[in-house]
Fold this protein.
Amino acid sequence: MSIDLSQFHQVFFEESFEGLQLMESSLLELDCASPDGETINAIFRAAHSIKGSSSTFGFGAVAEFTHVLETLLDQVRVGSRGLTPEIVDLLLRSVDCLSGMLRSLQAGTALDTAQSRELIAAFNAILANQVAAPVAATKPAPAMPEPAPAGGQHWLITFIPHTNILRTGNEPARMLRELAELGPLQCTALLDRLPEFSALTPEECHIGWCIHLTTAEDKRKIEEIFEWVADESDLKIEPAAVVAPVQPAAVPVVAALPQAPSLVALETLAEAVDVADKLDVPAKQVRATESTSIRVSIEKIDSLVNLVGELVITQSMLGQLGTEFDMSRLARLQEGLAQLEHNTRELQENVMRIRMLPISFTFSRFPRMVRDLSRQLGKKVELKLSGEQTELDKTVMEKIGDPLVHLVRNSLDHGLETPAERRAAGKPETGIITLNAYHQGGNITIEISDDGRGLNRERIRAKAIASELIGADDPLSDEQIQDLIFQPGFSTAEQVTDVSGRGVGMDVVRRNILELNGSIDVKSVAGVGSTFTIRLPLTLAILDGQLIQVGDQVYIIPLVSIVESLQPDLALVNRVAGGCDVFRLRNEYIPIIRLAEIFGIAPRNEGLEKCLLVVVEAGNAKVALVVDDLLGQQQVVIKSMEANYRKVEGISGATILGDGTVSLILDITDLIQMAGVRQQLKSGLKLVSDRSRVAIR
Amino acid sequence: MNSAEQRAHEIANADVSVRSRDQQDQFLTFIMAGEEYGVDILQVQEIRGWENVTPIPNAPAHIKGVINLRGTIVPIVDLRQRFGLQRAEYGPVTVVIVLKVATRKGSRVMGIVVDAVSDVYSLSADDMKEAPDLGDNVNTSYIRGLVNVASKMVILLDINELLGADTIPEVSVSALQELKNRSDQH
């Protein structure tokens, strides 16, 4: 039995996808006229690693495909072949093909080799110095048997020594060296005969080799090398018909990943347990595609180790103080506690930072996407990225990817004009899309801006009136109009393209962002461009909260959803027919939700006059929560209620306050639903637009 | 504690084989309304005194609330109320047994409030008698069995059945309400 390699599959896939990403971004950077040698090397190394490890794991199709790719890359690398846009295109398509193959391997589904065979044919055509096959070729060109190049004849040698070959004094490595002297050779180790690790003996040889050799010498010469071992091995020497020129003397064993040598793969406990489970279970387990491991730079770990060291010192100092304490040392105790607090906070921040990844992980997919889309749409686009090193919580990053893709697609499709239109408007033909990320306070801000035509105020307005989102003559400010594009079912695109315009877009984007406790808004100037600004909390594990008192309970409202807090003026509180109280705040009527009533607890104050109103916003609705008191603001660590109990309506989680008690965090969206004010809210809206002619969003 | 009877039993068991001794399970018992109940000791995580809980809004009456157990949020169930017994005042001797409960969705940690902790018994499966059928009105699915220890009856509880099913309704209350509304309309 061979070593169970399946336990390493996850690592292989992760590394290969990383390699593919690197290849893709490097390919996009390449300038065909004067290719940068280092970039080509990087692409080559990535391809080489994938080839090496995929053949190690027995993914022959991937290895075979990468091999052809590598051959071409090698020629470009050594300069024997110029780089053309066709080659870059072909390479990019192969990256897609490879990632498709890897994904289906990962999911354990059958490989579709049609595309790879087609691409291999295209590669072979290029390698045979023929005119490059058209990139969009639909039928695979038959692989041409190549004439033997000047280098000589190709030989395929299968050399499987018997296990006792070492005892007879023969050394396979020496023979391989001798073979290498005849000409360039490529050698793949056959590991299928490897016994279990515990059964390995150093005196036995379990490895076989499959050797591609290109040599001017004849078969006799090759046979001579193996003359002494003919009886102790299975040897097959046959001329190979189609073998691409191989790179010199490559001996692909398990190739080490070239990039990121200083990274340590930290795995969550769950993953560790998972792996432990998998050791017992036979392979072929379909894993969720969402990866559960995270790469953390060694610097971050070191700084954590340092901080823990400091914490231990502080602790021992305090411990010593405690054993022989008298009041004269009070000052030192306070000093020690202050230091402890400092250490703890720093440790907390650093631990949180482990979950942080640079946003370039998300940004890196855009150059490719913009390149493909701009061709498809016939637009000239330059993509500018900045702030790629801005760090963001991994979970947040995974969830923000799709909304960002949507926004960039939108900018390309709706925002930017065609080159002709741009010329007419006196702008340069090439449009610019800028992605920018930076930290601001406890938030990360991501901006997507374009210098296109901007939002068309009139068209949005007309559309909104047509779909009855607003009245025909509601006076709306520019911001209010721009905000309409986030309404469900709203699209101003005249034609539905496969890029955008189906109207299932911006509202979903906004909803996704709100789910992350973030916000999105848009600024646009007609003819100059639009900028979408997304603000997100840095992490989902910590939240800025407002502590409130209802009855004898303390609850927490996420600070981001609070619009304002105020003491109600009873004259402004009205009861609408449905039995729902509304409160007039400047020009809006806001439904009032009594928390005590919803949660079934006795309020401290019966009437409204002694209470406070906290105006909160969720989705597109504003409501006012009646609370007995506002206590204070603090950062709270979010704990799950579901872990040991279940989802509680109106509650998004719990946290532990300074005194060790548990406090529940309110889920505003849920609360609004619970209070059943959705319906009243709508009639409230109507009331607003009828009476004061000002629409709220 | 029990007397010569169990000792004799133990000695007899020890003579038979090591294996049958292994088959003995240990149970932690507690007192509630004068009756003695037992739970598998392997499921007991810790025993602690009653402390104030944070109530969960709109939870069933027997879910008293949640506590902070070294950073984990743990719900507390009043077993008296769960069994429909008279509520007792919580005092200094009121005890919370923290249990690991296996549910369909994985393992959970929950606490039960009981009057007092009693003893630990080693019992083998042979000692256990099935709960008698008490008719349709009484649900006995969470009773693992009844056992006599020193002429006293101990009710062995199946904690997974008792607490696992209880707190994880498959349909939320609002969904139920909706279903009801819908059927009213038809």
In short: Residues 460 and 573 of chain A are 34 Å apart (CA to CA). Chain A has five domains: 5-127, 153-239, 298-354, 358-537, 542-691. The mean pLDDT of chain A is 75. The domain at 5-127 of chain A is CATH 1.20.120.160 (Four Helix Bundle (Hemerythrin (Met), subunit A)).
